[in-house]
Amino acid sequence: MLCTPFVLLFSLWFGSNAVNMQRIKSMFYHAYNSYLDNAFPYDELRPLTCDGQDTWGSFSLTLIDALDTLLVLGNRTEFQRVASLLQDTVDFDIDVNASVFETNIRVVGGLLSAHLLAGRAGMELEPGWPCSGPLLRMAEDAARKLLPAFQTPTGMPYGTVNLLHGVSPTETPVTCTAGVGTFILEFAMLSRLTGDPTFENAARRALRALWKTRSDIGLVGNHIDILSKKWVAQDAGIGAGVDSYFEYLVKGAIMLQDEELLNMFQAYDQAIQNYTRFDDWYLWVQMHKGTVSMPVFQSLEAFWPGLQSLLGNLDSAVRTFQNYYSVWRQFGGLPEFYSIPQGYTVDKREGYPLRPELIESAMYLFRATGDHTYLQLGFDALESIERIAKTPCGYASVKDLRDHQLDNRMESFFLAETIKYLYLLFDPTHFLHGGGTEGDGSWEEGGDGGQCVLGAGGFIFNTEAHPLDPAALYCCSRHAQDHQELRDILLSLSQPDGRSKPPAKQTEDPPPNPSDSIALKPGEKRTPPLLSCPVQPFNARLSIFGQVFTDNT
Ligand code: DMJ
What is the pTM of this model? Predict the structure, then answer.
């Protein structure tokens, strides 16, 4: 390739892609090795005290979340070692209250993705892969633990489930919107690979129920009572508590070629553009009236330009990205909340827990435009994180971007997402970008009798940056059909008159069975759940931002 003076200048100033990729690898191993040395088998590393803690469960979460990143960085031997280690050590039969949402996106998503990448990682594959395999069985096992949460009259899930006992009878019925609508990618993939439709049906039933609750002006709020279908927090926006619901409508539509999901998103998008968008910022509005309730930008919203670029809506994506990037430049990171009218951070939300969203958008936009602004953001992020967040033991969440105080926490998404998207931003020919580029465009045959081709096209990232191969969806239908036939034969053999009954019709809306929800025994200990979408009403949490409220309804 010719080196134009601009490209040369850029490389001199920002470092070449190869140099940046090497720096990102060092960043990964500094954190990863420290997690293994000091924190495993706990969920997370505590980077200030150099020890570990369980946070979202008790399943070595950081290791599950980081597994596919190892392969992204090209480390096949460590991927193989960790995949085996997890099979030997992780047990989901535990008396732990877990977030249904977080367990799905991090654990089920992480294992599914690792399962689909196992061939490329050089793992020994069992016959029938990708329709079977140990990592798939683990993903299924984890997902099955979540199913009791979906056994509700509406089909919308509870936010928390006890992995051993099911939903507690005292569990709050208030779930955030993302906690209802962020399952279709993992659950549909699981169903199509295993041939068991239960997962996909549960995710679809929840999505359809949620869709019916939108307001007359086409918006959804932030927290809903999943039993009464009443909106408990009526702030509509694209950030915390809602974000990945919209993401999964788009990505679900793409992955499953599903028009129903796309239509839902497009209807929402129209309302979002009409009521919440101002100067390419997105505000929070009252879901029934459309009046502004909070003129705030939340760092979680920074995924939006990337999502828009997936839909080809580039102009708007670029402008919104520029707004968000200006906030990054102001603080050297994205504060959790930023008051748009005041142009400053919001009280008690000045932190940056090393989130990936702006880098994620930069990755998509760089691929779509080739504009080096996005590499510059990547370079800025690399520099900032090294300078502000690095500790002898890993990388710490920034408690306050104004004075760079740190928190003793390194969330698992730092290795799963932030580092992965950074690396992919600087590696435009990576196999995860698809397109069968030179040298690494290899694909694998799989399924029964090698009937399917994997890895030949692009990947869809779940909301925790775990890549899913859409081609795998078509690998196992034959397999599922065989299973059904086998089931029918076995059923017919078990009939006294040897005749088979017609297979029961799979209903979209399975009737709820309250007794399926296994209660905690009286007096049993419950640890309070750590939800990303806390269960208290949204307004209560936001009352501390009094100064940015313009509408208190
Ligand atoms: C991740 O767990 C996921 O990206 C989720 O959708 C939102 N929050 C974090 C990262 O910020």
Answer: 0.87
